[in-house]
Specification:
The protein is α/β, with parallel strands linked by helices and 391 residues long. The chain has a domain at 56-91 and 146-187 and 239-356: Rossmann fold, CATH 3.40.50.1220. The chain is built from twelve helices and nine strands. The chain has a six-stranded parallel beta sheet with strand order 3-2-1-7-8-9, sandwiched between helices. Strands 5-4-6 form a three-stranded antiparallel beta sheet. The radius of gyration is 24 Å and the shape is globular. The structure holds zinc ion. Zinc ion is lined by residues 195, 197, 200, 202, 221, 223-224, 226.
């Protein structure tokens, strides 16, 4: 990847200000003195006036190494993680919203009008059965958190995790030891369920829902007999209020964004990258680059700082590490000197989960059925923009 000269446009702008000042005062100073003065001015202005509107360059180079050095500096205290399906694939979890994963192949008997109907709240209220049949196939509790999940847990233990915003509903962040306060589950969670009856809304725990799903009984409210739905966000439902309230307060405080396993194509989640101050470095760990919106109109809609810029001559804060999320986290942990600690944590936690699953195996309602790989569903109408419907 291109590594821009650290003395890029920011420094050039700084130079211009300095030139103007030099001609006023008529003095000549060395580059070192100039830098020192510019640092002072930058800090002064960002603290007193511009609060986050200054494009200060905080990374000494736009690489994983540069990010690691920044993370080890005093300046980087609060990290926000933004994560998507890519952090759970190594746990064996397919992206269950995608009709092309094969999960949908077993649903032909339900005659869905189109695959996404399964996640539409209106359809669900009339026909909940296909959703629960799908849920049985990828139910939380059958999967173990990944290296990437435990890397986020380690950030928490180091006191650096401000928040983890996840698009996943698999609850693996919780299984990995993140607490509700650490999390914004933007697309909801399986962890709790509620009766869909508008005047009832009775809450049910994961264990209750799990028992119903594995006994192949459509979960019905014990109070009013309405269907009970896991608290995942369906098409046609609002994101949790917590998403918006945390977003308002978190991002201005963020010293670093780590974006993992997401192609940043689902709104409003994708727009979170634009909420941090303009100086805040953003590290993307993903199979391919994301967030680089080429369409200038869409770029404008995303707002200032909305699009990622990894390689232009103006790039100053965005770093892309391309590859598997787990490998990216291991590489970063290694650079931070945390690798051994991360590996020990994973070993300990996975052993704990194995012991737990072993003790549950006697209970037929929680045992896992052997997983087959059915052929891809015929209707591979993958839509990535939430709410967009296939024709
Ligand atoms: Zn009810």
């Amino acid at each position: 990847m291109a590594e821009p000269d650290p003395s890029d446009s920011l420094e050039t702008q700084a130079g211009k200000v300095q030139e103007a000042q030099d001609s006023d005062s008529g003095t000549e100073r060395g580059a070192a003195g100039r830098e020192e003065e510019m640092d002072f001015l930058r800090n002064f202005f960002s603290q007193t006036l511009g609060l986050g509107t200054q494009k200060e360059r905080l990374l000494d180079e736009l690489t994983l190494e540069g990010v690691a050095r920044y993370m080890q500096s005093e300046r980087c205290r609060r990290v926000i993680c933004l994560v998507g399906a890519g952090i759970s694939t190594s746990a064996g979890l397919p992206d269950f919203r995608s009709p092309s994963t094969g999960l949908y192949a077993n649903l032909e008997k339900y005659h869905l009008p189109y695959p996404e109907a399964i996640f539409e709240i209106g359809y669900f209220k009339k026909h909940p059965e296909p959703f629960f049949a799908l849920a049985r196939q990828f139910y939380p509790g059958q999967f173990k958190p990944t290296i990437c999940h435990y890397f986020i847990r380690l950030l928490k233990e180091k006191g650096m995790l401000l928040r983890c915003y996840t698009q996943n509903v698999d609850t693996l962040e919780r299984v990995a030891g993140l607490e509700p306060v650490d999390l914004v589950e933007a697309h909801g969670t399986f962890y709790t369920s509620h009766c869909v009856g508008t005047s009832c809304r009775h809450e049910y725990p994961l264990s209750w829902m799990k028992e119903k799903i594995f006994s192949e009984v459509t979960p019905k409210c014990e109070k009013c007999q309405s269907v009970v739905k896991p608290d995942i966000v369906f098409f046609g439902e609002n994101l949790p209020a917590r998403f918006f309230s945390c977003m308002q307060s978190d991002f201005q405080k963020a010293d670093l964004l780590i974006i993992m396993g997401t192609s940043l194509q689902v709104q409003p989640f994708a727009s979170l990258i634009s909420k941090a101050p303009l100086s805040t470095p953003r590290l993307l760990i993903n199979k391919e680059k994301a967030g680089q919106q080429r369409d200038p109109f869409l770029g404008m809609m995303m707002g200032l700082g909305g699009t990622m810029d990894f390689d232009s001559e103006k790039a100053y804060r965005d770093v892309a590490w391309l590859g598997d999320c787990d490998q990216g986290c291991l590489a970063l942990a290694d650079l931070l000197g945390w690798k051994k600690e991360l590996e020990d944590l994973i070993q300990k936690e996975h052993a704990r989960i194995d012991a737990q699953l072993g003790s549950e195996a006697a209970n037929p309602t929680t045992s896992t059925s052997p997983r087959k790989s059915p052929p891809p569903a015929k209707e591979a109408t993958r839509t990535t923009i939430e709410g967009e419907k296939p024709k």
